[in-house]
Automatic annotation (TrEMBL):
It holds the Pfam family MDMPI_N. It comes from the Bacteria. InterPro entries: DinB/YfiT-like, Maleyloyr_isom, MDMPI_metal-binding. It comes from Streptomyces griseorubiginosus. This is Mycothiol-dependent maleylpyruvate isomerase metal-binding domain-containing protein. Coiled coil: none annotated. Residues 15-146 form the Mycothiol-dependent maleylpyruvate isomerase metal-binding domain. GO terms for cellular component: plasma membrane. One of its GO terms (molecular function) is metal ion binding.
Length: 266
């Protein structure tokens, strides 16, 4: 049961980085940037915007320099890194960073080997990774901003489905399933999770082997999650998802969610 490749191509991911950033800037325009972001505890809206802009600039440096080792990520994780920026200029600054990132990605192309934080056995260490990752990093933080400002959060179904598949890929890294002291085993004979987004897609995650494997399509599952694809994506990322319904072994599903969300705390 092998994992499927992305249904989006490199150029579409580049376009999504810019489009999602423009929407994020629109959501935040005129908003109170000191308003807390409930889905990012301890953050306010201004910090969220600075985080996304820093993320884009960090990824752009990796791509532009073709870095094969990690580079300093202070501009992503240090709240003071961009504190000097005038709040009124944050929207333009965000869009500028997204444009620069997309431009550098296009200049280098999708297949150049660069460093990524992803598992080398599962994810190709290439500029293509960064196009996809930054598209969905931006999209999810747009959801955070929309929650704060009351803006409408609408996502193209095909884009949301590809973001779900990126999550499922990340859920197969060793940190998400290897045995841990005092933690119930995730893997076991006959265990499987089904994710049903109706016409937007359906996925089955097999937990019955030596490691998790996912594929497109349905099948017999121990637990299932069903809802509109955008709500399904938000559910996976531990965001409010009112349209999602779950059935079956809730303990297995909760354990899987706890294990796979480890990287959200990084």
């Amino acid at each position: 049961m092998g994992e499927a490749v992305s249904t989006f191509d490199f150029e579409e991911h580049c376009q999504a980085i810019v489009a999602q950033t423009r929407l994020l800037a629109d959501h935040a325009e005129g908003a109170d940037l000191t308003a807390p972001v409930p889905t990012c505890p301890g953050w306010h809206l201004g910090r969220l915007l600075r985080h996304v802009g820093g993320d884009h600039r960090w990824a752009e440096e990796i791509v532009r320099t073709r870095a094969t080792r990690p580079i300093d990520d202070e501009q992503v994780n240090d709240p003071a890194a961009h504190a000097h920026l005038d709040d009124r200029s944050l929207g333009d600054w965000l869009v500028e960073g997204a444009d620069r990132l997309a431009g550098s990605l296009r200049a280098v192309g999708p297949d150049v080997r660069v460093w990524t934080p992803a598992d080398e056995e599962l994810v190709e260490q290439s500029t293509g990774f960064w196009a996809r990752r930054m598209a969905y990093e931006t999209l999810l933080h747009r959801a955070d901003a929309a929650l704060v400002t009351g803006a409408e959060f609408v996502v193209d179904e095909r884009l949301a489905a590809d973001a779900v598949e990126e999550w499922l890929l990340f859920s197969t890294v060793p940190e998400a399933y290897e045995p841990q002291p005092g933690v119930p085993d995730l893997l076991g004979t006959g265990r499987a999770l089904r994710f049903d987004a109706g016409t937007a897609g359906e996925w089955l995650l097999d937990l019955g082997g030596e490691r998790p494997r996912w594929r497109r399509g349905g099948g017999v599952a121990t637990a299932s999650v069903r809802g509109p694809v955008t709500d399904l994506l938000l559910f996976l990322y531990d965001r409010p998802a009112p349209g999602v319904r779950t059935r079956g072994d809730s303990r297995l599903l909760d354990l899987w969610l706890e294990r796979t969300r480890f990287w959200l705390e990084a």
